[in-house]
Amino acid sequence: MTAPLRQPASGETIVPVALGDRAYDIVIGRDAIVTLGSRIKTLRPGARVAILTDDNVAATHLARVTDILKASGIESTPIVVKPGESSKGYATFETVCEAIIAARIERSDLIVALGGGVIGDLAGFAAASVRRGLDFVQVPTSLLAQVDSSVGGKTGINSRQGKNLIGAFHQPILVIADTAVLDTLPAREFRAGYAEVAKYGLLGDADFFAWLETNWRDVFAGGAAREHAIAVSCRAKAAIVARDERETGDRALLNLGHTFGHAFEAGAGFSQRLLHGEAVSLGCVLAYEFSERQGLVGGNSVARVRAHLADAGLPTKISDVQGGTPDVDRLMELIAQDKKVKRGKLTFILVRGVGQAFVANDVDPAAIRAFLADKRAS
Q: pTM of the prediction?
């Protein structure tokens, strides 16, 4: 059973991730970042810290985080990389690992991932690898990272042949989701993160999706609605991760929209042409539309999904991708490299309605090919 949300006297919401002796908390709240030093000091007394971040986040948040750690007597070393998906590759991974070693970070020390999904994935993989395993803390600064990539222990980098194909499962020991840092997020980045919020309703919580249809503007505006949406999303992910940490069953549901989405993201060169959350939005719509074509879902479900994501300013059609998309042959090659492929058989997350996703094994490639051809032509 999933542990309930905890509301301490400070007003933060705490979502536990129940993984036995590797359990950890997701701390959600405005200005929650001010507790980072005291929480690290409690969890790992005497630890030194390497802070991995990117140029953009460093300019806004690094000095404050350094001061917060210093106030708790924690020595830190910053490691700053270029922003964007291009940093999730072999070259930057090597640079980060060497910088951690040069900083003399030992096994009893910590890595802090201060940034969005790219930084969290890169820092986590480096933490899993250097000295055969260091602990790390996630301090996600984007909506997408706060509700998805910072939770669950998936870490990694991209291959030229696909997204997140090199990596490891490595759980953090703490996640600090400070909702105040989202105030500085560019509007496009916030919208992209919102796709992952909507995903939780689409895959398993019809009531939450209905709430988002009514309240999404308040989520964008900030305040209580934003914190509620983040807490519900984190609780949903924490429950699934606790049941299936290594994605042998239910956790695959979290990939709703990702098989299609990753193919388009890779086709766009992991660039600003198509952000990850934008790809997920497009992928979710395609998953619903393909499910409809297969006779799995009827009524107004597909129209609701398409309309809501479009209202939020997210892509819902292949033609929405800036600069065009690969042809069907290339898309099928990219889909064939997806991590959910098993012995060459395609696995997709399909739906029977809003909040009713399921894992579909051995999906007919010919049906996917025909579907994509039709959608590219429309």
A: 0.92
